[in-house]
Amino acid sequence: MVIPDIETRSREDIKAYQESRLPQLLQYLSEKSKFYSERFMAHDINISQIKTLEDLANIPPTTKDDLQMRTSDFVCVDKRQIIDYNTTSGTLGEPVTFALTENDLERLALNEYLSLSCSDGTADDIYQLMVTIDRRFMAGIAYFLGIRKMGAGMVRVGPGNTKLQFDTFNRIKPTTLITVPSYLVKLMEFAKSNNIDINSTTIKKAVCIGEPIRNNDFSLNTLGKKIVDSWDINLYSTYASTEMGAAFNDCQYGLGGHHHPDLIIVEFLDENDRPVDENEPGEVVITTLGIEGMPLLRFKTGDICYHYTEPCPCGRTSMRIGPVIGRKQQMLKYKGTTLFPQAIYDILNEIEFVENYIIEVSTGDFGTDEITIKAGCKDQDEKYEKLIKDHFRAKIRVAPEVQIVHPDQINILGSPELNRKPLTFIDKRK
User: Fold this and answer.
1) 34-42 vs 11-32: helix crossing angle, rounded to 10
2) What does the pLDDT look like over 174-221, one tens digit per residue?
3) Domain covering 331-427: architecture
């Protein structure tokens, strides 16, 4: 297990280290970034007076709208230095193009090497990469570079094509999967229908991306339990985004994603952009360290999480981040109840006859949020609608509109041509 020294130091030492990096970052942004140099000037910010992490509060946060509307003004290097272009998934708006230099790719490799090492990865592993490495997807290239840096083996299969996944199990004998966790369920279903003992494979671990597998108390959620109840593998959560160019991975203890303080500064803010206490959820706000192409200062991710500062049994003392509760823009007000999509996913994942689903949200006649669940069920049983609604009333006291459709229809609705990830949430609110 590789643990950088900075991740085992005291909180005071980690803070002092990050503060020693601030002047260089601010000077770089002032000289190279059109967006930030104008922001400093517009708000009369003297960067020489920003000396502590607390002083960052004097700089207005950067929003997703800023990034979408002025993307080119964030680029800090000459076009000839850019050697890789990626785009965000566009889940909460138009995708944003990110430009990476050679040094940025090396930093990305270091991040993923450290993150996969945190999740018990070693040079002896063989990773089956079940996410796309093309389609302008940063995660795919990050995993590829990190696994190379680790010195481990790798086989690039990509998403879907379940037969090819099992053929790779047999031919290559991988030890670790990198995938969205809901696809692990599909692998288990395929194995069962084809009389394959899923536990006879060489797979020992799965690094899960894109979907949470843990509750806020770090216990496995419905999806996580569904996997490990049938498949004897270790699951590791990952929290990451294109904008931060960094990842927070679980270690063996599964107590939250570990922070790499030499790569990123993290704040947790309330609705008024004030820091929250450790026992309160807050929006994840990031400042990137060591990025040349498009560094970000106090960028609001929109993700709501808890954070934890007590040392982890693994020996790391750096901050840990809990599962994403929800995205700020996806918060729902439904019949007097505040919901995030994850609460709806958890309920649907408990219902055995629901194979897949899509949640559609729209604005009602009186400006209220309206929720429609399209539930993919192979048997179009007329009782299913009532059974699903009963599940919701038992769990969250309210029941949204339910439509029973064939799973194939959900697959089509959830796979728009330009999307890299299957959609489970469609927001049509005005």
Assistant:
1) 100
2) 999 999 998 999 999 999 999 999 999 999 999 999 888 999 899 999
3) 2-Layer Sandwich (3.30)
Q: What is the token pair recorded at 146?
A: 């990190």
pTM for the full predicted model: 0.84
Extents of the domains making up the chain: 1-326, 331-427
Task: In whole angstroms, give the CA distance from residue 27 to residue 408.
Answer: 53
42-56, 99-113, 173-187, 375-389: range with lowest mean pLDDT:
375-389
CA proximity to 324, closest of 253, 265, 251, 241: 241
* 12, containing H or E segment: helix 11-32
* CA angle (283 as vertex; 364, 361 as ends), nearest 5: 20
What the block records as the tokens of 391 is: 């599940």
State the CATH class of domain 1-326: alpha beta
Contacts of 388 (CB under 8 A, 6+ apart): 348, 351, 354, 373, 375, 399, 402
Q: What are the tens digits of pLDDT across the range 223-248?
A: 999 999 999 999 999 999 999 999 99
- Backbone φ/ψ region at 210: left (φ over 0), alpha (ψ -120 to 50), beta: left
Percent of the chain with pLDDT over 90: 73
User: How does 308-337 read in b/e, with b if 16+ C-beta sit within 10 Å?
Assistant: beeebebebbbbbbbbbbbbbebebebeee
Give the type of residue at 355.
E
Output 430 or 274, whichever has higher pLDDT.
274
**Angle at 91 (CA atoms; ends 211, 227), nearest 5 degrees:** 10
